[in-house]
Write a structure and sequence with these properties.
By secondary structure, the chain is α+β, with helices and mostly antiparallel strands. It contains 17 helices and 5 strands. The chain has 3 domains: 156 residues, Globins (Globin-like), CATH 1.10.490; 87 residues, no CATH class; 92 residues, PucR C-terminal helix-turn-helix domain (Arc Repressor Mutant, subunit A, Orthogonal Bundle), CATH 1.10.10.2840. Helix content is 64%, strand content 7%. The protein has a 5-stranded mixed β-sheet with strand order 2-3-1-4-5, sandwiched between helices.
């Protein structure tokens, strides 16, 4: 069992203060040595990547820390000069500069060790003043101070980081609103896109739209992509979660495949024009998601759903198209209506061939021909005519979209 450390006497305490005061004339030299040690020990890391302004600020800040630290430990500091105020401000400043916290904590440890070594070296100049009792007490003091200054700085750093993160998130959300609204040409948008999203304005991007449909975990898509290592930025708009993904060298098919396990209705559209085309991609992705029937969890590419998106985005035109094309078919008795619509779908899928349509409908070819005549009589359209086939196909899509919406 170890014995408790001996109580420091008032005399020793005064001698410790005088010992620290002896280092004040060399404060700047000690600080510059600490700065060189920090820059040399972190070669290839953060300090080397930043500009000369931050490195100059490091030198100036280190000098201030050493001077205030020595004056505080020497009992010479006023209330305004107390080092604790500097520790808090340094934490806030380093957070604003983006310096990793571990580098800041390391700097304090290096500085404390340098001061201790300087005091040890000073002992040769004043052996009577700096004896073993003074060194022991000074060592306890400086290492206790290191714990306090690290905790003080870290708390200020975290608070400032949280504040910056909240501010940047708000700015990011505003920027995404601007881009999704099609206001790309507004002043400063491209600069903010680089700053907040790290995106080149011309970089191809994908827009993802997930419909909530009562889903409680609204971050499910974002978290899933994050686990796959895919960078994405997200924004909530009404009942939709909207994501922007820089494609870079990733094929959109890989993105869709990666999203497939997510249990939701999701549409994906791309913008080869970069952020300038993001608003169009957003509308297409939202339209594609809306074409998926409720209760169906799947991911679709807008490029594969363009006809459905077209009729869904023009409900008045789609209504007229259905009425004037399939109106008489839709008012037939339920069994006949179902048979006629399934026959029309099979004929359109097989270029109007009754033989191929009969094989998928599991009925006789003559039955298909009879229904074809009924369809042509009720619609006034001929499947042999290319334009009539297009109109009938769009009308059938409009019916499907309306039925999905009703479900």
């Amino acid at each position: 069992m170890t014995s408790a450390p001996a109580e420091i006497t008032d005399d020793t305490r005064q001698r410790v203060r005088r010992a620290w005061a002896l280092l004040l004339p060399r404060a700047d030299a000690i600080a510059d040595s600490i700065t060189l040690t920090l820059l040399d020990s972190t070669r290839g890391s953060w300090y080397e990547a930043v500009g000369p302004d931050v490195r100059s600020d490091l030198r100036s800040s280190t000098r201030d820390h050493v001077r205030r630290g020595l004056r505080t430990m020497a009992g010479l500091a006023t209330e305004e000069e107390r080092a604790v105020h500097l520790w808090r401000e340094t934490g806030r400043q380093r957070a604003r500069q983006g310096v990793p916290m571990e580098l800041v904590l390391n700097a304090y440890a290096v500085g404390s060790r340098a001061l201790w070594e300087a005091l040890m070296a000073e002992r040769h100049n004043a052996p009577e003043e700096i004896d073993d009792a003074v060194l022991l007490a000074a060592g306890r003091q400086i290492w206790a101070a290191l714990d306090i200054q690290s905790a003080t700085m870290a708390e200020a750093y975290r608070r400032e980081s949280a504040r910056i993160q909240r501010r940047d998130l708000q700015r990011q959300q505003r920027l995404l609103d601007v881009l999704l609204d099609g206001r790309y040409a507004e002043e400063g948008v491209t600069v903010e896109a680089r700053e907040l999203l790290g995106l080149d304005p011309d970089e191809p991007v994908a827009c993802i739209v997930m419909l909530f449909d009562g889903m409680r975990d609204t971050r499910v898509v974002e978290d899933h992509l994050d686990r796959l290592g895919v960078l994405s930025y997200w924004h909530v708009r009404g009942d939709r979660q909207v994501g922007v993904v820089p494609l870079r060298k990733m094929p959109v098919a890989d993105l869709i495949f990666g999203l497939s396990p997510v249990p939701a209705r999701i549409g994906v559209a791309t913008s080869s024009d970069g952020l300038a085309g993001l608003a169009v991609a957003y509308r297409l992705a939202a339209g594609a998601a809306e074409t998926i029937p409720r209760g169906t969890a799947t991911v679709v590419a807008a490029a594969d759903r363009l006809p459905e998106i077209l009729v869904a985005n023009s409900p008045e035109v789609a209504g007229v198209l259905v009425e004037q094309t399939l109106g008489k078919v839709l008012v037939q008795p339920p069994a006949q209506r179902k048979a006629l619509l399934s026959t029309l779908r099979a004929l359109l899928d097989h270029n109007g061939s009754p033989t191929h349509a009969a094989s998928v409908l599991y009925c006789h070819r003559n039955t298909v021909i009879y229904r074809l005549r009924q369809l042509e009589e009720l619609t006034g359209r001929r499947l042999a005519d290319a334009r009539d086939r297009l109109v009938l196909g769009l009308a059938l899509l409009a019916v499907d979209v309306q039925q999905s919406a009703d479900r």
